[in-house]
Design brief:
Shape: globular
Order of helices and strands: EHEHHEEHEHEH
Distance between the termini: 12 Å
Radius of gyration: 15 Å
Number of helices: 6
Number of domains: 1
Strand order of the largest sheet: 4-3-2-1-6-5
Strand content: 15-25%
Number of strands: 6
Low-confidence stretches: none
Helix content: 25-40%
């Protein structure tokens, strides 16, 4: 895994309503939101209801709208839910989340996050840092930390 992929920052969904006019430019068409989101973030966490409702055409568009290093992390659904099979789509089982996800809203301590990033750097395993609330200021702090640390 390349160092640029070690820390992937994002939010739960790419379209929180409070991002309009703050993160997204005024007048940006809805179908451009994901592409724009991917200019600042490397991953998105999708609730089960969102990804399960997506059609094959939606998935094809989402994958086309994002860069190769971008990841879709999926909340597990019911036992009948089958996630799409693409290398950039990951199912967030509880065990996987414990090993690979930092929930920014629950633990906003940047020093502790830097330590967790260093642990992941030692193993080469990616760390996904997600904001449940879509807190743009916190997400920017994480992106800044990621860059300062060289990831």
């Amino acid at each position: 895994m390349t160092s640029s992929a070690l820390v992937r920052v994002g939010a739960v969904t790419w379209d929180p309503p409070h991002w309009r006019g703050r993160f997204y430019p005024e007048g940006l068409p809805d179908d451009w939101l994901l592409s724009y989101y991917n200019t600042q973030f490397q991953a998105v966490y999708l609730p089960a209801g969102v990804w399960q409702a997506a059609s094959e055409a939606d998935w094809a568009q989402w994958l086309d709208d994002t860069q190769d290093g971008f990841s879709f992390v999926l909340e597990p659904g019911g036992t009948e839910a089958v996630p799409p099979v693409f290398p950039r789509v990951l199912l967030a089982t509880p065990e996987w989340v414990a090993a690979h996800v930092w929930w920014l809203d629950e633990a906003p301590d940047m020093r502790a996050l830097a330590q967790r990033i260093a642990q992941h750097a030692a193993t080469g395993e990616p760390l996904f840092v997600f904001s449940l609330s879509g807190n743009l200021a916190q997400l920017q702090r994480v992106n800044d930390l990621r860059q300062v640390m060289g990831y």
